[in-house]
Design goal:
- The structure holds two protein chains of two kinds.
- By secondary structure, chain A is α/β, with parallel strands linked by helices.
- Chain A folds into two domains: 234 residues, P-loop containing nucleotide triphosphate hydrolases (Rossmann fold), CATH 3.40.50.300; 169 residues, Rossmann fold.
- Chain A is 32% helix and 26% strand.
- Chain A has 18 helices and 24 strands.
- The radius of gyration of chain A is 24 Å and the shape is globular.
- By secondary structure, chain B is an all-alpha fold.
- Chain B has a domain of 253 residues.
- Helices cover 72% and strands 0% of the residues of chain B.
- Chain B contains 18 helices and no strands.
- In chain B, helix 3 runs antiparallel to helix 17, helix 6 crosses helix 7 and helix 11 packs antiparallel against helix 14.
- The relative contact order of chain B is 0.17.
- The chains are: A alpha/beta, B mainly alpha.
- At the A-B interface, strand 2, helix 1, helix 10, helix 11 and strand 20 of A face helix 1, helix 2, helix 12 and helix 13 of B.
Chain lengths: 523, 428
Amino acid sequence: MAPVLELRGITKSFPGVLANDGIDLTVEKGEILALLGENGAGKTTLMNILYGLYKPDAGQILIQGKEASIHSPNDAIAQGIGMVHQHFMLIPVMTATENVMLGVEPTRRGVFLDKGKVAKRIRQISEQYDLAVDPEAYIGDLPVGSQQRVEIIKVLYREADILILDEPTAVLTPQEVEGLFKVLRSLVANGKSVIFITHKLKEVMAIADHITVLRGGRVVGTVTPGEATPEKLATMMVGREVNLVVKKEVAHPKEVVLEVSNLSVQDEHGHLTVGGASFEVRAGEVLGVAGVQGNGQTELVYALTGLLPLVGGEIRIVDRPVHHTTPRHILERGVAHIPEDRQRHGLILSFPVHDNLVLCTYYQRPFARGVSLQQKVIVENAEKLVKQFDVRTPNVFVPVSTLSGGNQQKVIVAREFSRPIKLLIASQPTRGLDVGSIEYIHSRIIEKRDEGTAVLLVSPELDEIIALSDRIAVMYKGQIVEIVASGTVTKEYIGLLMAGVKPSEALKVSPAPTKETEVERVF
Amino acid sequence: MDRNSNQPRAVDSPDPKERSKGKDRRRSGSATFQIFLIPVLAIFTGLVFGAIVIVATDASVIAAYHNFFRAPGAALLDTWKVIALAYGSLFDGIFGDPATIAHAIQVYRATGSTKDLLTAFYPFSDSLAAVTPYILAGLAVALGFKCGLFNIGAEGQFGIGALCSAFVGYSIKGLPWFIHLPLALAAGALGGAIWGAIPGYLKATTGAHEVVNTIMMNYISFNLGDWLLNGPMKAPGYRPLTPVVQDSAMLPRFFPPPLRFNWGFILALLMAVLVWWFLFKTTLGMEIRAVGANPEGARYAGMNIVKNFILAMTLSGALAGLAGATQVLGIDHWVGQNFSAGYGFDSIAIALLGQSHPFGVVLAAVLWGFLRSGATNMQSMAGVPLDVISIIQGLVVIFVAAPAVIRWIYHIRLARMETMVLTRGWGR
């Protein structure tokens, strides 16, 4: 029997980039194909071609052995291809049912929406594929994991046989990832096929039937999880050997650099998102703040960096209070900030690389004399940093928007690390980055720690927290639930705390390890 | 660039040199070229459409087309004649009639009389003079755009600037020109600056949208102007005019009357260079551009958004006020009712056409002023209404603002380029 989907020689170039170069790909009925590759390897471009968003320059798409022409998402849906995007395409003020029926609204007598019919079908789908969703719930009230299930139901409601999931685990807690995997297994058991796009090796090993690795727009190879090891996959992805384990010595914490006591912060809408958080970070240690996204970590970091005002409590940086202080004063006190949203906060995308590298220091000597910018010094500084931090860019004059995500992040890291700092606040420093960049940024953070910088690491990736932190603070609903020394508890224990289980109860479910924890992989 | 966009990111090639060898490099290298190509094609297309309008509204051509099948040649010839006459007189209106100029030069050589020469060069001199306020007002709007602010108030700032400079110009007597003239210019700039600073301050501190507030400031300035011209500032007589400014406050003219080409033009060019230096070579300019491109990012980097909003609107207002001042002190020498009519609003189009770059603004202002200046001649010589020029200008702006249309007409591929920041949406 012909495979469900076959791509032959798909080629697509954009000005300046050959995004897909003769890609061949086969998906069998009832299997999960993982599409693995670094950012910029061409995964998303390929899937957008399959979904009718881009037109390929060359190549064929065969569905059930027949050549298909797909010019729009509507064509793709008609051919049984459904896509769950990384950023959900849901309307928060509508119910699950309304979101599912958007665009294919069934009606009674031509004008009246038939929500009952849709809700019934949603319940059927929910039952068949183990996708628990309340059809009447408003999307805005649902946790991210449930929202994703609504997206999957939306695709199944449109009778898709091939589901494309673009980085589906990026927004989920470890427990939610398990739940998603269960759903995916039941989907393939029911004869659906899944294309799973990711750059996380662990997930691929856990869920895929076949793994196709892309690099630089080409297929490097296709393997099964049985034949592969994470090291081998990482090498295929990056094109060189990658050190998957963060190497670090035991920390030697010194004086307190950051002291937070009973801190309360409101978000932009006036909701109290941090309520009474207290902790301290010492020079030469990494304090990791674990927690599912949206539990107040963002506002905590904004308060620390002066982007949001405090409503209660105190922050002291190097023994001086931070209160009614501008972001600039905080930066000048020796605080570096790798923001969680690099494109919104960390960079001015339309500015050239060289200006972005002095974004926090442009007004100081030697970059400026009086009000006059010293263009030559700024460019020399940029050329030095680009070399030192291995930023891949044609030159320092191109807008930073033309760089890949990993290289944009390197620009931020280079800028923040190149000035004298006492405290590093790194918020999701490797979000959306590929293996090679993650390895690089992690080693740089540990390097800073060993130089005696206090590091506050905030990340929803538990693996990253465990790999880098000396102590771990778990944040849930705006509070620090517990602070533990790394290695004294299991990953499951922290995962349970992240999900809101009380420490005493979590300990019953997942007692502290007796033997030394095994070396955790980050990827 | 939108951060959720589907724009492909550059591939992480292990060797950047290898990447640059690819043939695709050439196409992306054309981004800079396209910045110039699109406006030029937009102007050309605007003129083509203008020609169609001219032809379609000409009675004789329409009559000729009734007989198209009997005499197609005559109809086509008529079409050509009408277009040639219209654009020919437009050209003459801008640069002067070549034959007249040649004749005037001959007369000058033969007799040494400059009378004919002055008449022959009058159109070109007036075209350059017409460009001056457009440059300054265009710079004003462009500077606002660079900070992400949409200054619709250039019109009102222009008017206030004109009134202030006129007041200083006629009321103070007995000063030497090198004090009086700068004083009058500064008064114009200051008036505009205050008119711009108010909405800037409101935006920065209360979040009140600058579009709404600058429009309101326009109304205040229009009505304030009416009252002043009918009352405190009215010259003796029946008409609502200010007195003529003192000679010492006038921008010196280069040639004897009637040529009105004056130092205002040079001042405008100098301001363009100054604005360029300010925006791209100073820390203040870098802050303004950063706030305009990404206010969140600018705040993260420690920049003061409130300060930059106010600064940008103040400077923008000052430039618009200076535009009004040069018009009064260089051309009119007094202020009458509806004085600012259109300059401030046209300057928005000029800033758009010039892609908000100071030098682009100069080129756009030249085009704008020339078309306006030549239009009168086109109307009187070819009977083509002034409105046709407005149509052409409108089309050019549409094509520049929506380059996709031009790309579609001429089959130009999109090049990756720095996205131009104009303004952000409402309420953000």
